[in-house]
Amino acid sequence: MRFHASLVSLACMFAAVVSAQQPPAASDPVPVPQNPPPAPPVLPQPAVPARPAPPFTLQVDPKFPNIQIQRGDPDLPQTGNGGASASFDGTGRVGRPVEFRVTVMGAIRLIEPPQIPEVEGLTFQSAGRSIMGNGITVHRFIVIPSRPGTFIVPSFEYVAGGRNITIPQSRLEVAEAQPGEARYQPLASMIEMPKRDFYVGETIAARILFIETPDESPTYIQNVSKTSGSVVFRVENMHRSVEVDINGTKRRAIAKPVQITPMKDGETEVGCQVIVHVQKRDISGLGRGFAMQVQSTIDVPPARFRVLALPKDGRLPGFTGAIGEFALSAPKLSGTEVEMGEPITLAISLTGEGNLTGVSAPELPADNPDWQTFKPTTDFASPNDEAAPLLATKTFTYTLIPKRVTARGTPAIPFSYFDPVKAKFVDITIPPQPVKVTPSTEPIAAAGTASTPAEKAKEVEEAAGPKPIEPALTGLAESPGLWRPGLRPALWSQGFLAAQIAPLLVLGGLWAWRKRREHLAANPQIIRRRKARAAARVALGDARSAARRGDQDAFLAASTLAIREAAAPLDSTQATSLTQEEILRILRDDERASQTAKSIFESAEAHRYGVNGAVKPDKLMPDLEHTLARLTAKA
Amino acid sequence: MKSFLQLLLVFICSTAFAETPDERFEKATTAMSDGDYGEAAYQLRELVSEGKYSHGSLHNLGIAEWKVVRPGHAILAWERANMLNPHNANTAANLAFARKKGELQTPVLSWYESYSAWLAPDVWLIAASVGLWGGVFLLTLPRLLGMRRADWHQGAAAILLAAFLLTIPALFGLSRRGSLGVALEDSTGLRLTPTRDGEELVTLPAGELARVEKERGNYLYVRAEGDRAGWVRREEFQRIWALK
């Protein structure tokens, strides 16, 4: 059910859109609909009569069939060219603004606002323009009627973008203000300054105030330009929101700080013109409650004050134009001891409120016999204090060179300023600062003793000291020196890096050798075993030789020696001391080896005593080798 | 076989008639005495191209190049001669002369680079090797050889190891000085990019020293005093210690 309801509402909306976009059939004026759209709800205000809805027509431009232009009054002759219109937003009341709109069609850039012809009793004020789609530009004006009646704004020509446009005339009905109704109160503005007389050259901290009213409120200050007054008018970049006391009432305002420096004495009037963005609240006065942001050019009421010339009497030495209230800081010397001829710096700072930016440094007397002086440097710093906008510090740095060792201190520097509040000059002379001057270590010329130009030149030359020796090209090298194959230091050669490994290898080898020696010393059986194996191998070789020759005696002697040598590491005695029983005990777990050893030992014993048994060395060799292998494995 | 014999003959002839470095040096010296600096420069350049370097030949090459108005090459030769023999007053004086004449910026060396310039690079390397390995051997050999370690062993080892430690900053300085090179041509352009049409940011006068920071193709990125940096072509700039 809900889905069907949505479909129905969508269909209705689509139909409405299609009907709204359908162009009219002709460009002729279309009859006014009998039921115009309802006006926005208006709060009941019995004091203000309801305004009758103005009759209007809809005209369609053939170039822009979708655009319908509202004409002002069908009773009045229309002189427009079909591309422009002018109309008031309803009727007006004396003292209350009413909006006047000039609408221009066409895809051209309409930058210039139209110049509205003067109409006695109406004040026009531009309120900006709106550029809409399809090349429509609407110029808005705020109109304030000063009397009741019917006003006609005549048709006028308007050249914009190289095109002549005729703006049709329009009519405004103005009624008397309702009893008790307040007149429209535009933004109030003023230049706020201290209330006293000022002096030529003095910098005055002032501010331009834009004070809000029930009808208008300032939002942003775009530009300030001086319109009158023989003054230097310097405007600060920022502005701030402040609260001011107007006849005992606290009002919000926007303040733009300015610094005013009078240039001439006498009565002075300073005015300025300011472009301000203003928010207009409820311009109709009917409580409709809408606000409108407009850019207004406001002529601020001029400030009048008296400017006096600085008094000629009582002027003190060292006055360089400083007007205000200042304090001098303690002078700072770069050193308290200086060699004659060497420079030293003296820095002084002047802090206070006044025209510090234009104050130049007090000058030192040029003919000082003890000191050579130079033009000082200056440095300016401002803390940007809101409460004291003129507060700043100016530092003067002097470079001084002592000419005599008799100088005991820096020269006094006369300095003074004019206090505009006390109306008198104030002395702030910089006192001498104690300095110890020591004789120069560099030879200096004895000035003034030369009588002839040649002597003077010589003196100057001597005073300049020894001339620096200019370098010169030297002689040739007589011998080439040691030849080398390249310039690259050995550090980058691979050979050098490889050579660094050689000592490491030597040390490693020595360490391994040392460790082996220690190991063998701790384990003597290793050496004994190796010796036994070697001796057994030699005896076995002898036995093989004897077997090949068929020499039984030699075979038996070599065989017994081989068995004894192989068994020696298994016993604590020497090889030659081992008996048959001891060897058989060692080989008791191997029958073959045991029988071989027994046979060899017994045959050898028999041969020793002349009994020649039937020993066949060829057949005994494998058994002998097996026996030796067993003994070696056991060792 | 015949061609081999021909080649052998050519080799024998070429070696028999090739000039020794000393002979070339003598020819160059004679040419300079006669005022023929072009010939002298040619002979000494030939020695360099053959890879034969000595302090005397480089010193004289610098003078010859200066005389034939090639200040960049002259300063390069003197820098190289100074590297081989840092205590030669004549070479140092010529370098000072050339820098004064050309109003060149004197390169600021760090303390370890200045320290490494007290001795020739090879001397530092030999000192480092002898110090390190001598100290290590003196400390370890008596024990490895089963000898009793004597007091002098330890004293000498301490001295040698201390000498090695003293060479470490110099070795570091040497490695840093290896990036120094000389702009050979006047108005050597430092380019924004390592390309032929790269925008020239600033130019270096002939003989100005700069450090090579990176390389790309035929270009070197160098930085001179005052942070003047950019890409230069290899043929416009040469390291003092020809590493390659």
Summarize the structure.
The complex is a heterodimer of chains A (635) and B (244). Chain A is an alpha+beta fold and 635 residues long.
Q: What does the model show?
A:
Chain A has 635 residues and is an alpha+beta fold. Chain A has helices at 2-21, 453-463, 494-499, 501-522, 524-549, 552-567, 580-586, 591-608, 617-634, and strands at 58-60, 68-70, 84-88, 92-93, 98-104, 122-131, 137-145, 149-153, 156-160, 163-167, 170-175, 188-192, 198-199, 204-211, 216-228, 231-235, 240-246, 249-262, 266-281, 291-308, 319-328, 332-333, 337-339, 344-354, 371-373, 377-381, 391-402, 416-419, 424-427, 436-438. The longest helix of chain A has 26 residues, at 524-549. Chain A is elongated, with a radius of gyration of 61 Å. Helix content of chain B is 57%, strand content 15%. In chain B, the strands form 2 sheets. In chain B, strands 6-5-4-1-7 form a 5-stranded antiparallel β-sheet. A two-stranded antiparallel sheet of chain B has the order 2-3. The longest helix of chain B has 27 residues, at 151-177. The mean pLDDT of chain B is 88. Chains A and B meet through α4 of A and α2, α4, α5, α6 and α8 of B.
Label this structure with key terms:
A: 635 residues; alpha+beta; 9 helices; 30 strands; 23% helix; B: 244 residues; two-stranded antiparallel ribbon; 7 strands
Strand order, sheet with most strands of chain B: 6-5-4-1-7
The radius of gyration computed from the alpha-carbon positions of chain B, rounded to a whole number of angstroms, is 23 Å
Return the structural class of chain B: alpha+beta
Number of strands of chain A: 30
Shape estimate of chain B: globular
What's the N-to-C terminus distance of chain B?
A: 38 Å
Most extensive contact: A-B, 33 and 49 residues
Question: How does the overall form of chain A come out from the CA principal axes?
Answer: elongated
- Classify the oligomer: heterodimer
Number of helices of chain B: 9
β-strand percent of chain A reads 25-35%
Helix content of chain A: 10-25%
SSE class of chain A? alpha+beta
